[in-house]
Design brief:
The chain has 373 residues and is of the alpha+beta class. It has helices at 2-8, 59-69, 82-92, 96-104, 166-173, 176-179, 183-217, 230-247, 251-259, 267-333, 348-369; strands at 37-44, 47-48, 72-78, 110-114, 117-127, 140-149, 153-159. Strands 2-1-3-7-6-5-4 form a seven-stranded mixed beta sheet, sandwiched between helices. A hairpin with a 3-residue loop joins strand 6 and strand 7 (153-159).
Length: 373
């Protein structure tokens, strides 16, 4: 709460100068570093302005340069703490509620507007490579990217060990015409980058589902159990559900960015958001299809296990019926009564044994013909 009270004083400039930063695009922060800022740059006319002293400028220096010479600042952070983000939030006038969401992460994908700032939350998805899918395999790993978009600044906050924005920044710097559109171009490129990641992960998950489907409907090896695939199917279903939680909530924000006029979004850039929204709809349909297909595969697997159990029970019952014949006859002649038919007959034993063999063979042939054995 103390942090939020401090952030409300957005009109007061920060008196503490941030620590010097290294000029690096590395998106993995060194735990011993004094700042979570991984890159801070000023862009004018689509080109990155060089740093005067060869070191990365601080966010405060970047904002002062923007206010004096124009352009916009793009500040990238990785898992900042409350203390590390407080000065930046005061300098750029960020709303305390949005700052709290950006620091603590674990947010639902959304789009919110605070005065002259758009706050967007994206869930990033990373496919975890695995040699074999098991009942405990991790298929997808999620992270988060928050984006504060203003008239003359963009602040990206990344959480998680994947989802690097280094390649995205380089790609935009190689396209000055697009970057000249301002902060909205960065927001669009970020959204497009995240959704492209969804498409790639969807293709990899599809391969895993195809593999499980083939194994479920293939002829089982001798001694294997049909129900052994249920754990893998259920685990894959859980991972698809996590994927769905990242994709589905983002559809509404993308529709708003592509359809509703916004002062902070360049009209030319807004057209490109429609393409991102279309790709996102396609991914959402694929993920929903994955969930339904896995439900069908799981039900088929359980049905196969039930059928296999019924077949086993029929075999057990068949052999029990065959064994019942000698058991009954031997039980009768084992009662030790003095006067019993054929007890004193010389050929009584071989006759009874032959009779038992004929009856058991006949029952076996009948059950075999009916598919019980």
């Amino acid at each position: 709460m103390s942090m939020i009270r401090d952030l409300r004083a957005v009109v007061r400039p920060s008196l503490r100068k941030p620590a010097p930063l290294h000029n690096s695009y590395d998106t993995t922060r060194d735990p011993s570093a004094s700042s979570a800022v991984v890159d801070c740059a000023v862009y004018r006319d689509g080109r990155r302005l060089p740093e005067t002293d060869g070191t990365c400028r601080t966010p405060r220096e970047a904002m002062l340069q923007v206010r004096e010479d124009g352009g916009f600042a793009w500040i990238g952070l990785h898992e900042p703490t409350e203390e590390e983000f407080a000065g930046i939030a005061r300098e750029f006038g960020l709303h305390p509620l949005a700052v709290e969401d950006a620091v603590h992460a674990h947010q639902r994908p959304k789009l919110e507007r605070y005065d002259d700032t758009l706050f967007t939350v994206f869930k990033t998805i990373h496919y975890v490579e695995h040699a074999e899918l098991t009942a405990t395999s991790e298929v997808v790993e999620t992270g988060e990217v928050m984006c504060f978009t203003g008239r003359d600044f963009v602040i990206t906050v990344r959480h998680g060990g994947h989802g690097s924005l280094r390649a995205l920044r380089h790609r935009l710097e190689d396209d000055p015409e697009l970057l000249a559109k301002g902060p909205s171009a960065v927001l669009h490129s970020l959204a497009d980058h995240v959704v492209d990641g969804y498409i790639a992960v969807a293709g990899a998950v599809q391969d895993d589902i195809d593999e499980v489907e083939i194994e479920v409907f293939s002829t089982p090896d001798k001694g294997s159990s049909r129900g052994s695939d249920a754990g893998r199917i259920y685990q894959l279903k859980r991972e698809v559900l996590e994927f769905k939680r990242a994709v589905s909530p983002l559809l509404r924000p993308m529709q708003l960015l592509s359809e509703r006029p916004m002062r902070l979004i360049d009209p030319d850039i807004q057209k490109y958001f429609r393409d991102v929204a279309d790709h996102l709809v396609r991914v959402q349909e694929e993920v929903i299809g994955f969930d339904e297909l896995l439900n069908s595969i799981l039900q088929a697997n359980l049905a196969q296990a039930t059928v296999a159990q019924n077949e086993d029970m029929r075999k057990i019952t068949s052999w029990a019926a065959i064994v019942a014949v000698p058991t009954m006859i031997c039980g009768v002649y084992g009662m030790n009564f003095k006067h019993m038919p054929e007890v004193g007959w010389t050929y009584g034993y071989p006759t009874v044994m032959g009779f038992i063999g004929v009856v058991c063979f006949s029952i076996h042939r009948m059950l075999k013909r009916n598919g019980w054995l």
